[in-house]
């Protein structure tokens, strides 16, 4: 539950990147990483090491826990990158791993709190990740209490949100400055991105991110992570300059006028007068599919209050797209796609390189937020429909 309230978009870990590679699934490659662990209360559970790609989840390795929750898992990775270890059937029982070849790490945890306070050791990045997750767990509890406190106004909640988030940001910034080449910075860097816009964002974060990108370029010049980070920094830099230059001027959502699954064109502009969540997704994107139930819940809750969803699919296979709409219960009738996948010009027009990606548009067609999820997204919708 707490992960869903995480205000910071872990865009690399929980989103499908257009630069992903599935070659790591080959089973005939030599072992170049191992993980030994003990998870109390997790007897006879399947353990997975996974990566995300535009084709969905890639299984890197798989193992089974013993009766006492201990396990050994090993596999092969092409190079430094961001992965996750997941235990059991619960998709939320996962922990980020910034694995590098030759890593031999250990994990100790309790199944009930596996995704919150695991203790990871054995590599140059494990201490930073373990500490970061501990601080985040404290932040998540405080955030939950803040969200549920009905006595505090929305304006004060935003102010208090930034206060309770400070320890997370301070830790991340200090770690990144002290060791910019640390693989853990893939995860830590998400604390410094402008998740809620630029109004309360510290522009000095951009210099910290640049230091990490420069260090990664030197240490990991061929890694897709390095390229993704450089692209994100460029997007933040351009967006911040636009924000600064226009003093948060109005930005109308670029028109989208594409075919629905039945061959009928549906223009975004025809939805003026409603608050619209533009949801970029695809049938092959596992994080998108995991997010869909929450999108459905938002639609059902607010559909009678001048709110709707405009789903834009980055599919190539029309039948797979149609099957996913039906399977996930996406009951609104505003589904469109040009079936060009990452070749769609919308990637450039809306400025994203991973999905799921959302754009919230007000009743006048003006963009008010990008890539919000969970409680932040619902709070914004609430404010707009009133």
Helix-strand layout with pairing:
Blueprint: E1 16-17, E2 33-40, E3 46-53, E4 56-64, E5 70-75, E6 83-87, E7 94-97, E8 104-110, E9 119-121, H1 126-148, H2 154-178, H3 185-188, H4 205-219, H5 224-246, E10 257-259, E11 265-267, E12 275-281, H6 286-302, E13 307-313, H7 318-327, E14 335-336, H8 346-350, E15 354-355, E16 357-361, E17 367-370, H9 374-385
Parallel strand pairs: 2-8, 12-13, 13-14
Antiparallel strand pairs: 1-15, 2-5, 3-4, 3-6, 6-7, 8-9, 10-11, 12-16, 16-17
Helix pairs in contact: 1-2, 4-5
Structure write-up:
The protein has 3 domains: 2-114, Immunoglobulins (Immunoglobulin-like, Sandwich); 133-246; 257-385, Glutaredoxin (3-Layer(aba) Sandwich). 35% of the residues lie in helices and 22% in strands. It has 9 helices and 17 strands. The strands form 5 sheets. Strands 14-13-12-16-17 form a 5-stranded mixed β-sheet, covered by helices on one side. A 4-stranded mixed β-sheet has the order 5-2-8-9. A hairpin with an 8-residue loop joins strand 8 (104-110) and strand 9 (119-121). The longest helix has 25 residues, at 154-178. The chain is globular. Residues 1-25 have low confidence and may be disordered.
Short précis:
Helices cover 35% and strands 22% of the residues. With 386 residues, the chain is an alpha+beta fold. The chain has 3 domains: 2-114, Immunoglobulins (Immunoglobulin-like); 133-246; 257-385, Glutaredoxin (3-Layer(aba) Sandwich).
């Amino acid at each position: 539950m707490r992960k869903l309230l995480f205000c910071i978009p872990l865009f690399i870990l929980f989103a499908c990147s257009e630069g992903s590679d599935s070659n790591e699934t080959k089973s005939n490659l030599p072992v170049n990483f191992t993980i030994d662990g003990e998870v109390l209360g997790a007897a006879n559970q399947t353990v997975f090491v996974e990566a995300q790609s535009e084709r969905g989840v890639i299984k890197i390795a798989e193992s089974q826990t013993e009766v006492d929750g201990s396990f050994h898992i090993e596999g092969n990775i092409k190079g430094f990158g961001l992965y996750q270890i997941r235990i059991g059937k619960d998709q939320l029982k996962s922990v980020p791993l910034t694995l590098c070849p030759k890593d031999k790490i250990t994990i100790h945890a309790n199944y009930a709190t596996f995704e919150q306070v695991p203790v990871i050791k054995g590599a140059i990045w494990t201490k930073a990740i373990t500490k970061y997750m501990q601080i985040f767990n404290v932040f998540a509890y405080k955030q939950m209490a803040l969200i549920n406190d009905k006595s505090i106004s929305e304006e004060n909640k935003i102010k208090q949100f930034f206060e309770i988030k400070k320890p997370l940001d301070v830790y991340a910034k200090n770690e990144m400055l002290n060791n910019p080449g640390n693989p853990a910075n893939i995860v830590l860097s998400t604390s410094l991105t402008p998740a809620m816009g630029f109004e309360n964002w510290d522009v000095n974060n951009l210099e910290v991110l640049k230091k990490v990108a420069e260090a990664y370029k030197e240490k990991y010049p061929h890694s897709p992570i390095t390229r993704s980070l450089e692209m994100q920094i460029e997007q933040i830099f351009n967006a911040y300059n636009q924000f600064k230059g226009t003093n948060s001027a109005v930005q109308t959502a670029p028109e989208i006028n594409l075919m629905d699954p039945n061959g009928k064109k549906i223009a975004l502009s025809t939805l003026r007068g409603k608050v619209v969540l533009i949801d970029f997704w695809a049938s092959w994107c596992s994080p998108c599919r995991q997010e869909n139930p929450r999108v459905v819940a938002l639609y059902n809750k607010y559909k009678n209050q001048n709110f709707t969803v405009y789903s834009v699919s980055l599919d190539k296979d029309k039948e797979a797209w149609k099957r996913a709409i039906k399977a996930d219960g996406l009951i609104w009738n505003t589904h469109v796609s040009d079936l060009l996948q990452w070749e769609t010009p919308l990637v450039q027009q809306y400025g994203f390189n991973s999905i799921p990606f959302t754009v919230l548009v007000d009743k006048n067609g003006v963009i008010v937020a990008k890539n919000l999820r969970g409680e932040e997204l619902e709070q914004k919708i609430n404010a707009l429909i009133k």
